[in-house]
Amino acid sequence: MIKNGYLTRVSAGALALGLCSASAIAAPASSAAAQQPAASDGGEIVITAQKRAENVQKVPISVSAFSGQTLEKANVLNVEGLAKVVPNFSAAKGAQSTYLRLSIRGIGAASNTTVEPSVAVFLDGAYVPRIGSAVSSMLDMESVEVLRGPQGTLFGRNASVGAVSFHTAQPKLKKGTAEVTGEVGTGNRYKVTGVMNVPVGDYAAVRIAGSQTWFGGYWQNKLDNRRYGGTDESVARGSVRVSKGAIDWVLRADYSKTNGDGATNIDFDRSSVSQTQWDNFVKAVGAPDTNLNDRYMNQFMTADLHDKQWGVNSTLSWDVGGGSTLRLIDNYRDWKNNQLDGDVIFTPTPILSRIGVFGSKSQNHELQFISPKDKWVGGRLDMVGGLYYFHEKYQQGERLNENAQFCNVLVRPVGSTNNVACNNNLTTVGGPVGGINAAVQDVNQTVDSYAAYAQANFHFTDKLFATAGGRYSKDIKDGDYKQVANLFLQSQRANESLTFPHISDNRFTYRLGLNYEPTRDQLFFLTYSTGYKSAGYNSGAGSPSLTMIPAPAPAPPGTLEFHPERRVFGRETTEDWELGAKTSWLNHAVTANVTFYRMNIRGFQDRGYDGTSFTVRNAGNLRHQGFEFDGVARPFANVSFVANLAYLDSKFTDYRNAPGLPATAATPQNLTGKPATFAPKWSGRIGVDVTGDLAGEGWTFDLNSNLSFVSKQYGGLQNDANPQTIIPGYALLGARASVNAPGGWTLSVFSNNLLNKQYELGNLYQFLGGPLGLFNPATGSTGIRRLHADPRTVGASVTFRY
């Protein structure tokens, strides 16, 4: 836990260093047409947050940007790792691999539902609709940009609080290169990566990258003495670039496949229940592991994971004359995930297993126009605009399978008529994991989204300019829902079948800003921006107490508020005020950026848990406010310090019908004035990077270390302000040391969580806590499961370049 004194010292140290905005990045792009971020040795950071390549210090938004090289130094391997280097950003995992909740400024959405994300993910300019499919490796990544605050004008309805934009390396013309890396690490982790860039004539090039990872897992199961949490992952990327005259075209294709068990270690918190409750629980189902500080688990396991996706992306840029560029981005992505995530009671007794089935087929098409930067109206006007279309067919499902002891544990007393009938059913029917398909849920959703947008900067003087932009979006949704449960699970899963009512939602979002540049190294900005998430469908597996009755007719036009009888919830809207400064000092030896913000979220789309399932609804209104500070200092040519710090004040301004505590779920709470989940007051990091020569003759070294920290926060799967779900604050230390030889090879050793801090990424209520006797009506409490974060990991790699 982060003590107040410790946090104060860390914060003061970060501010005293006077350090930095976005740590790291990219060499200036060769042209706006290429739209490819990169970083020079001088440290200039170029981003494409406004659809054109620009120096980050000239862009009036709160953004953190990193080159692939910088992310490698910080041991950031995937989107989850970004939380270590980006202030006011978090990535929460769950029992299912498809559950990944990305949050910016404390606002996010569960990714394994039909709810639109609050934080949009983009890959090479194309929207990735399901965050659960973005967990793959950052193979051959050129840069990553994290944009904080609503991005509704340029990025759309799905970026209501921010966006994460990934850019893969594109082929380099007239420069042939190749490299191979071998890596070994904790948990029987082995990885081989290769990248090759081949010029083809004077105007074309091909780039191929691939990696193969074998991972045994971190967790040892005492019940069967097997290791869990491991996966084997194969990733491949290929791209072709043709650039001649006014045309620059990049065609990309990618493929990834993950197989393994994908299991997570969700320990039981012994302190969450009384001695009597614990004794009865152990008598009924056996004792799960309760040590939150080890690498052991103790539960019946049936885990199996298969995840596969592929995609193609075409980016065609055409210099239409006068410095203007026309760009067409076409993208198609296909993702499938099938996971048997073990016995979901998480005990040594085989009771109930779950199979999650997910699939998404999507396409993006976007036509952009980018004006020259300094040629219109005497250099006073520039703009970007575009037309956008998105289509997705999304499927998700759940299969609950009764395991061998289901009847004896949950259909009691043993020997009763119902118990005998249940066991006879198990014996005669059989099933994929020793039981029957006890409950089957299938949800289908089709989305079509259309948009037109434009944003312009008008320079009144050389020092003062205004930004104005708007986007009109129209979203159309259709779908259906079906759930069937057998006699012995109908008390937890309702039989239900309906066609979702047709949704047609539209919204105009916009951005207004006034910006002042007194010098070339200073930018001050005041911005008001809006964002939204469209109305949608509640895909939660409802219990009988929440059974939704099919509507006799579609909802009237424009009626998009919460309608439980139709499984429809209304739109969520965001408005955001920002006051910021981006500054450089001492000939760019120091950069210091700060943004103060206030976000208001209305109609917050959130999940509520009834003990066995989730339902989605418009939860209420939120106000999130605070500041973000980023700084970098380079006191010497070979030494750089980085620091960032974020403060977040989260509060529900209206939530009078919130879910009750687990043991008193039928009694709603008034959470007005309470903070949201995954909204820590403080987060940030400090780091140092040192490079130098080793013994001359071309030998060099690079030492990098980062300390990231986060204060306490609610970490449950729903907003109910349950003190049992508070995650204590923690700090994580990472380090990497590399030696570069004159022959073109590099040897590195690295570690994440170097001090082996035992902490949790989130928590959940013990499934079926009521029937298992864990509810305490006097306090509202229940048994808590805590998701164990990764332990200390160490590794080494060697890279050969040609």
If you had to describe this structure to a student in words, what would you say it looks like?
The protein is mainly beta. It has a single domain, classed as TonB-dependent receptor, beta-barrel domain (Maltoporin, Chain A), CATH 2.40.170. It is built from 5 helices and 45 strands. The longest helix is centred in the first third of the chain and has 14 residues, at 4-17. The chain is globular. The two termini are 47 Å apart.
Strand content: over 45%
- What gap, in angstroms, lies between the N and C termini? 47 Å
Oligomeric grouping of the chains: single chain
CATH architecture assignment name:
Beta Barrel
Uncertain runs are 1-34, 36-42, 428-435, 544-564
In CATH terms, the superfamily is TonB-dependent receptor, beta-barrel domain
The radius of gyration is 26 Å
How many strand units?
45
- Overall body shape: globular
Mean pLDDT: 87
The number of domains is 1
Class inferred from helices and paired strands:
mainly beta
Largest sheet: 22 strands, antiparallel, barrel
How much helical structure, as a percent, in the residues? Answer: under 10%
CATH class identity: Mainly Beta
The CATH topology turns out to be Maltoporin, Chain A
Number of helices: 5
